[in-house]
Amino acid sequence: MRQPLFSIATTAFLPAIFLALALPLHAGSSKEAPPAARDERSVLAIAGTLTFYGVKPDGDRDGIIDEVDKCPHTFYGLTVDARGCSDRDGDGVESESDVCPDTPEGGTVDSRGCLLDADADGVADYLDQSPFTPSGVLVDSRGIPLDSDADGVVDYRDKSPNTPRGVPVDAAGTPLDIDADGVADYQDRDWDTPKGAKVDAFGSVMDSDQDGIPDHADSCPNTPAKAPINREGCLDLPIITFASGRSELVEEHHPVLDRMAAVMKQSGLSVELRGHDDLITNPDQAPALSLRRARAVADYLIWRGVSPNQLILRGQGQSAPLVVKGKDEAQAANRRVELIPMAAR
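Above: the chain sequence. Below: its structure as tokens.
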């Protein structure tokens, strides 16, 4: 009669089991072996017995016998390949030593099984569209350095990282300033400001005294408002002429003196009134006559509201003629009162 399979297996394995249990009680041992040693001896004894009886051992119980198992210490329960090795994510690093066991397919890993990130920007190389980003530079999910204002210049190189959308910039990310006046073109009302000219916040050429001549071309940028000026932007005060031997104002000069009075009242401008005479008057009488002419102009200005403190009178006599030769009509230019501007008071 055929012997039952269970009986055969029991008969075959009983010596191995007996040997495993008997090893700790070996007569040559004076002390009881530690648990780990007992377990190892038991496994070796069972393996040896199994080999003796034609059953080849599989120490890590992965289904691959030890003699062909390239990874004989695979953790229990891991799926292995024909070599007896486990590499769950297929990155070439065995699962038992893989620090990153779930690496996506296609990624290159280091010896620990973790994805390479050459520039250490937090984006793995196989996904990084800018794999050589400088250290510390912020990047997006693609590994590309951030460009917050979308001007085409990445933030770490952008000198103006908050440029409004659509504004043209240079290679440094700075908005263009064609006339180099310090005001970006998109804010500049005057794109053709002369080099060196001072401008306001909107790029318009400054005209401090509002005389119509910009400061960069104005020889006198602080001219009182509405004062008469010349081409250089400086005060162009009137010259008041007189008849020969006379010190009375001619009515035709009233309008120009009215305007002069208005400017002086508004600005506080002070003037020196210099009276002159021609060269045909008695030299002894010329100083007094020239001073009376200055007084006549002063009286009119004071009548029009100018403070006496804004006026200084001088009689120059015949000391500063404009015309040296000629008589009568030629000498008319010398019979005058000049208004010389002084500091505002």
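The CA atoms of residues 89 and 105 lie 7 Å apart.
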